[in-house]
Specification:
Structural class: alpha+beta
Shape: elongated
Distance between the termini: 31 Å
Largest sheet: 2 strands, antiparallel
Strand order of the largest sheet: 1-2
Number of helices: 2
Number of strands: 2
Radius of gyration: 15 Å
Length: 46
């Protein structure tokens, strides 16, 4: 496996772990002033 492929695999696995962590915690939705939802996943991305 090339170094580039290994890097992409690590990124994908890290993203999957973050998604699973948020999913397992259950939904917690906050709302912005315009009443559009902001999820914990969105906040982590910032």
């Amino acid at each position: 496996m090339t170094a580039f492929c290994e890097m992409l695999e690590r990124i994908a696995l890290d993203a999957a772990a973050a998604i699973i962590e948020v999913y397992d915690a259950g939904p917690e939705v906050c709302y912005k002033e315009d009443q559009s939802p902001v999820t914990e996943a969105d906040e982590r991305r910032q």
